[in-house]
Structures are given as C-alpha cells and as structure tokens.
Design goal:
The protein has six helices and seven strands, in the order E-H-E-H-E-H-E-H-E-H-E-H-E. By secondary structure, it is α/β, with parallel strands linked by helices. The protein has a single domain, classed as Rossmann fold (3-Layer(aba) Sandwich). The longest helix is centred in the middle third of the chain and has 29 residues, at about 105-130.
C-alpha cells in the first residue's frame, strides 16, 4: 500500500540509535527514502539495509563544519536533488555537570553538535527547498529548551539556542512553502543517559519512566504528514 511519504526524501542526523534511528524507521515506514547520518559507521549501513526503500548511510561528525559541508554535497549526489523533502536535525551531545565542572571543551563540543550542526544543515538545504517551494525542517529540541535544570549549563545553552533558531526559521520561511516544526520531548530513554548517575540526581526520573524513542518519532511523523497548508509549529512531549 502507498504510504503518506511515498516519493519523498528525508535526512536524519544522529540516526545510528535512539531517537534518530526511531525517526528514520518511522519515515521509511511511511514511504520515504531516508539518508541516515551519524558519526559511528559500525551499524549505520546495516540500519539502512534494514529500512530498505533505497535508504542510504552517510558517516559524518556533525561537529566538524568541513565534514558537514562534504556530507551535504554527498547527500545531493545520493538523493539526486539540491535538497531533501525532509530534514530532521536530531544529533545531540549530552553531558551533566555543574557549570564549574564543565570544561570549555565540553561546552564547545555540546554547542557544536546541538546548535552549530543544525544551523549548517539548515543553511545547506534551505535554498533548495525555497527554490522548489516545499520542504520541512524538523528540529528535535528538549524540555531543556524551555526549562532550566541544574547541571545543564552546556546542554541548556545549546537547546535554548536551538529553539531560538527554530523560531527565526519559522518567521523567515512563512509563505515560502517550507515548513518548520520543533519537537521538544521530556526525558527519553536513550543511551545519552548511560554516563549519567541518575540515582545521584534528586528528582531525576528512572529510565523505565522515560519516554520511548518511538513516541518522539510518532510526533515527527504526525507533523510531516499534515496537509501542505498546515504547519505544526511546536510539539511538547512529557511522560506520565
């Protein structure tokens, strides 16, 4: 049976695991041809084969601006278009530490992955989307893009900034045919939590209470399958 995204192309960053892989799977299941982008190449090609529908894998460290530019050029070649129909900026870096224990290197890395990289990908695809008169930019935010938590200096700075980038894009792209959506989930049970000592964080939820990655993917799929004249500006997800 035909899917709602048949004939569409999608790029998902951070697609080797967690939210990114769930989004890639949901989009492919709806008929899209997906390009999976991630730093780790070990399982990326296998994931692309499992998704089928011509899915492709592209290894890229999104914190490296030169690598992103090369990846964008390769994506144009692989997808046969100046821009994909859908871009899901999901790749993320997460480190929990008090501000005085956060090294400048960690702060820079977090902003590089969580904020600069989405800008670079958007910067690379928006001209093609505008020229075509269609496209959808999906930004994976966080509860930390509107709520402050102790130990989140680097992460909050990146996610608040990412929400600001989304808001500017929403204003600038209105009327162009290019849609923009921010999906801001609460805690999601992914490997990003593995290095964190949740037991030592007062009020931190147990991982079994966190959202499943597929809930975020379902929200993304909902946004991108709305009629062309409907823009889902923002979705916030929380666990019960």
């Amino acid at each position: 049976m035909a899917g709602p995204l048949d004939g569409r192309t999608a790029v998902v960053t951070g697609a080797s695991r967690g939210i990114g892989l769930a989004c890639a799977s949901a989009l492919a299941g709806a008929g899209a041809r997906v390009a999976l982008v991630a730093r780790s190449s070990a399982d990326l090609a296998a994931h692309a084969r499992e998704l089928g529908r011509g899915a492709v894998a592209l290894t890229c460290d999104v914190a490296d601006a030169h690598a992103v530019q090369a990846a964008l050029a390769e994506l144009r070649r692989l997808l046969g278009a100046d821009a994909p129909d859908l871009l899901v900026n999901n790749a993320g870096h997460f480190a929990v530490a008090p501000l005085e224990s956060t090294s400048p290197e960690t702060f820079a890395r977090t902003l590089g992955v969580n904020l600069a990289a989405p800008f670079l990908f958007v910067h690379g695809v928006v001209p093609g989307m505008k020229a075509r008169g269609s496209g959808h930019l999906v930004t994976i935010g966080s509860v930390a893009d509107h709520v402050a938590f102790a130990g989140n200096a680097a992460y909050a700075a990146s996610k608040y900034g990412l929400r600001g980038l989304h808001e500017v894009l929403r204003v600038e792209l209105r009327g162009t045919g290019v849609r923009t959506t921010l999906v801001s989930p609460g805690p999601v049970d992914t490997d990003l939590w593995s290095p964190a000592n949740l037991a030592a964080r007062p009020g931190a939820p147990a991982r079994e209470r966190m959202l499943d990655s597929r809930a975020v993917a379902d929200a993304v799929l909902y946004a991108v399958t709305q009629p062309p004249d409907v823009n889902v500006d923002e979705l916030r997800l929380s666990y019960r």
